[in-house]
Design brief:
This protein is mostly beta strands and 334 residues long. The protein contains five helices and 25 strands.
Amino acid sequence: MRIFLSILFVYCAVEVFAQKPLEFNLSNNWKFKNTKDKNWLPAIVPGTVHTDLLNNQKIKDPHLHQNEQELQWVENENWEYSCEFNCEEAVLNHENISLQFYGLDTYAKIYLNGIFISETNNMFRTWRPEVKKHLKKGSNTLRILFESSVNKGKELAQQIPYTLPGDEKIFTRKAQYQYGWDWGPRLVTCGVWRSVKLVAWNSCYIKTIHCIQQSQTTAKAELACRLEINCNKAGEYEIALSNETEKLPLKTQKIQLKKGSNAVSIPYTIDQPKLWWCNGLGEPHIYLFNLVLSQNGKVLHSKQVKTGIRKIELLQQKDVSGKSFYFKLNDVPV
């Protein structure tokens, strides 16, 4: 009887959770090198090429003395990052598998097992190339080639018949402070600056959540959780939303999803909301929401999002000196 119950439990667990996406964080076994060099050096991901060079004692601390001036060569070079990871058959059996790059700085070409799979040109966005057909059981090699953002920016500048202020940096979707500021050095870097994940899924998964505050009073806050859902098969699904901070009951909503990408909005009301305040004015209260995507009682994916309820206003009104410029938080001048 015990054996039977154990098998039954395992079977039920597989039935309920089999379609949940599998996520693997690829943060280990990274190495890097200048494309002109042959030898690889250990790298830390997330990170940058400057921190990796510093960790390997290949450059001096750029924040000391005049070292900044001696390190300007780094921005003109192309750099390569690589890691190896294992992929089990259980992962390969999923219908969809993607690599998810949450931050690549900036012009990068991505190769998996020697095959080109994607190209990036924006430091601030997430990239999700599909890689199922390029993966193999056992060891896989991921390689990322970063081209000089300075050289790419200069190439883009030459494509227009006039000159814009701000030199090559204004053509690049990249942190502008890296090009030097009155408060910081010029260190135009590159690298895997946010996490990398391998994600495998079958039916549906919640790609992104954005919590929008539509209105707010002391008595009530009206919110909308906007979701982007990737779906492999059109049909009727169910979204359950709960306020984990206050352990409030679930709100469920039936949704119709088409194959591909879907935009879904889930309205939600909080009575007597606790507001978010900045340091010195009160508690920075944060709400935690849990969203569960399911179909016919089977959980397909769940995801959480945090948000603070607050009203922020910029006040620009005529006064005796000309025009004001200050912020109000929840109707309190800051």
